[in-house]
Amino acid sequence: MIYSRNAFCSIAEVPTVCVEHLEGAPLSFMTTAAAQRMRTLTEPAAVIPTTTRTIKQFERIQLPGAPWRYVITSNGGNILVDGVPDLRWRIDIDAKVRAECHTRGGHRRTPLPDR
User: Which residue from 51, 58, 61, 96 lies 20 to 30 Å from 83 (Cα-Cα)?
Assistant: First the structure.
């Protein structure tokens, strides 16, 4: 849904809108059609953006349809509720990872240190 400028090089005639800047420079884009569809989708339905990006990276994006009640970032490692990290989720995820930290061979690795 979001692309770098390089991804659009071969299809320069497709209209785009910049949705992310980094240090003042345009970084990521959506097609104008996708941006409009995103706005339309969020009118009648709750949409929960889900991304591999970190919280900081997600916060740079001006995704059409915002503000978001819920956002899932970091491959599910973080949940934002009204823009604020859900610490209970983060604590529970960290505990689960510590408890089940295994190598591919099924051997328990050294537990993760407490934060």
Answer: 96
Look up residue 5 and give its DSSP letter: G
CA 56, 59, 60, 64 torsion: positive or negative?
A: positive
Helices (H) then strands (E): counts for the chain: 3, 6
Residue-wise pLDDT for 6-38, tens only, equals 776 655 678 999 999 999 999 999 999 999 999
Contact 73, 51 (CB under 8 A): yes
Q: Which helix (H) or strand (E) holds 57?
A: helix 55-59
- Nearest residue to 112 via CA among 103, 99, 104: 99
pTM for the structure as a whole: 0.79
Dihedral angle sign, alpha carbons of residues 10, 12, 13, 17: positive
